[in-house]
From TrEMBL:
It comes from Natronorubrum daqingense. Keywords: Cobalt, Hydrolase, Metal-binding, Zinc. InterPro entries: ArgE/DapE (IPR010182), Bact_exopeptidase_dim_dom (IPR036264), Peptidase_M20 (IPR002933), Peptidase_M20_dimer (IPR011650), Peptidase_M20A (IPR050072). GO terms for molecular function: hydrolase activity; metal ion binding. Pfam families: M20_dimer, Peptidase_M20. It comes from the Archaea. The lineage of its organism: Archaea, Methanobacteriati, Methanobacteriota, Stenosarchaea group, Halobacteria. This is Succinyl-diaminopimelate desuccinylase. Gene3D superfamilies: 3.30.70.360, Zn peptidases. Belongs to the peptidase M20A family.
């Protein structure tokens, strides 16, 4: 019987190789929006899986499906990549992660797509969020193979697109197409650092509201209807609503603790043509956060009530346009995959922190849509490194997460000797 230590030694022996792999992976600028370099990213992952003797399947997303969710990005092709390894009768363990990254932006002190290792940290856009999660799950299975671990069941690795803009054409599409129908356990390798087991996330509703008035010359404002004034009324109601939302809290371990309540923020506003024109349009964008127990449909109704109240108070008409939504998701701390991962995290780090994410992610598709309770988030990336300049991941975190994933796989799909 292969010991865990033999597997861990195989992981440590591959340190340089995984740094090289991850550096090349990060060097592909798979920025979303709009979906830049997705074909190159998918081809790189397909090649990586083929080199590891997975049964590889690429799943291109039809253009009309892309257009339904992202009408301004349908010209950018989207392909999800899957690899399967079948070891015999037994359960299916599915590792999944996204390979799109947010745009690098400015203020980097190094090239975001020319990764470097400094003081044990690998720098580059996507290092933590979350190409390191994909690298860790691949490394875990590499080590199991190298150590000739006797497994029963199937390991699936999926690499998806568009998580950063809702995931509807990525993991959501795979779930809709039935790719999780036979999944017993799922580990979503999103960044939360290797000391934590994430049980779920808050939800979100992103939407845009446009107040419609009537244009006029500023010297004859009485002939117009100022859309900014109408929006001011609505924004006042949103601030009152925000106070109400802050009373809706959850006992779940959302981190940071300051995020354990519902919320809404006005995030963008646009109006006006010239200093001497009363504007007939004012558009504002909002970010509504839902705690577990709330629903997107209820949030929509609450927004609609406030729009109606503003209409009655000002006479202005309003358009409501939804950008994206994600229902909250949660799984029990006691579920099998959670407890198994936690056991191995504890062996490496001591006390395990169970958390719920303050933001939404693709876990909801597996839990809410596919109905799989045994799905947790566990990955090496650091949450505080997501979307920042000079993003990095500690190389040791990648190795530790891979060890936890490998030991978890041994427990769920085979026999293990902890010595």
């Amino acid at each position: 019987m292969t010991s865990q230590q033999q597997v861990f030694d195989a992981i440590d022996a591959r340190r340089d190789r995984i740094v090289e792999f991850l550096s090349e992976f990060i060097g592909i600028p798979t920025e979303n929006p709009p979906g830049r370099a997705y074909p190159e990213g998918a081809a790189f992952l397909e090649q990586a899986l083929n080199a590891r003797n997975y049964d590889v399947e690429t799943v291109p997303v039809p253009r009309d499906v892309v257009a339904e969710h992202y009408p301004d990005r349908a010209e950018h092709p989207r392909t999800n990549v899957l690899g399967h390894r079948e070891y015999g009768d037994g359960p299916t363990l599915h590792f999944t992660g996204h390979f799109d990254v947010v745009p690098a932006g400015a203020d980097w002190t190094r090239d975001p797509y020319d990764p470097v290792v400094e003081d044990g940290k690998l720098y580059g856009r996507g290092a933590s969020d979350m190409k390191s999660g994909i690298a860790a799950s691949l490394l875990a299975v590499d080590a199991l193979e190298a150590a000739d671990v006797d497994l029963a069941g199937t390991i699936t690795q999926s690499m998806t697109v568009d998580e950063e803009t809702g995931g509807f054409t990525g993991l959501g599409y795979l779930v809709d197409e039935g790719y999780f129908a036979e999944t017993d356990y799922c580990i979503y390798t999103e960044c939360f650092d290797s000391t934590r087991v994430c049980l779920g996330h808050r939800g979100v509703l992103k939407f845009e509201v446009t107040a419609k008035g009537k244009k006029s010359h500023g010297c004859m404002a009485h002939d117009g209807q100022n859309a900014i004034t109408a929006m001011q009324d609505f924004l006042g109601r949103i601030e009152e609503y925000r106070e109400t939302l802050h009373t809706r809290t959850t006992d779940l371990p959302v981190t940071p603790p300051e995020s354990r309540h519902a919320d809404i923020s006005t995030t963008m506003i646009d109006a006006g043509y010239s200093e001497n024109v009363v504007p007939d349009r004012c558009t504002a964008t909002f970010y509504r956060v839902l705690v577990p127990g709330e629903s997107v449909s209820d949030a929509r109704s609450e927004i609609a009530d406030r729009l109606q109240a503003t209409h009655e108070a000002t006479g202005a008409e309003f358009d409501y346009d939804e950008i994206m939504f994600a229902e909250p998701a949660e799984v029990p701390r006691e579920c099998t995959v959670s407890q198994t991962v936690a056991t191995h995290v504890e062996r490496h780090h001591g006390d395990v922190e169970f958390v719920v994410s303050p933001g939404s992610d693709d876990q909801r598709f597996v839990v809410n849509n596919a109905g799989i309770e045994n799905c947790i988030v566990y990955g090496p990336g650091l949450l505080e490194q997501a979307h920042v300049e000079d993003e990095y991941v500690p190389v040791d975190e990648v190795l530790t997460a891979a060890k936890v994933m490998a030991a978890t796989t041994m427990d769920l799909l085979g026999e293990t000797d902890a010595n």
